[in-house]
Amino acid sequence: MYFAKNLRFLRRRAEWSQSDLGDKIATDYNTISRYESGKSTPKLEALTKLAQVFDVSVEELRNVDLTRPAGLGRAEEPSDAYANSSRLPAPSAEAVKHPLLVSVELDGTAASLERAVARLTAINPIIAATD
């Protein structure tokens, strides 16, 4: 698996800090740090958000060495199920609505409030797109 290596590579290539990436997927920089160090593995929801942010498939993010130039070949190719396509099947065009519960921890500082607003703002376009 190449997830941790790929995540660090893609984040640095985008010139984002761990905090910047955390804001984009509604988590904190500590979580991104744990993912990049291999100390933690994201759940499917977070993995899907990360793949969307970097415009790669979940399969590629986890199983393909994205740090290698495409012309030189990859250390490990995706499974046979994806041999003819580098993308997962497209999601249904029909929106499905589900209740969304967002929990935000505040420690009483202005910085924690700013982080919470940034995270909620980051997920707002995703939510608004399903209206």
UniProtKB/TrEMBL annotation:
SMART domains: HTH_XRE (SM00530). One of its GO terms (molecular function) is DNA binding. Pfam families: HTH_3 (PF01381). The keyword Transmembrane helix does not apply. Residues 69-88 are annotated as: Disordered. The keyword DNA-binding applies. Residues 7-61 form the HTH cro/C1-type domain. InterPro entries: Cro/C1-type_HTH (IPR001387), Lambda_DNA-bd_dom_sf (IPR010982). Keywords: DNA-binding. This is Helix-turn-helix domain-containing protein.
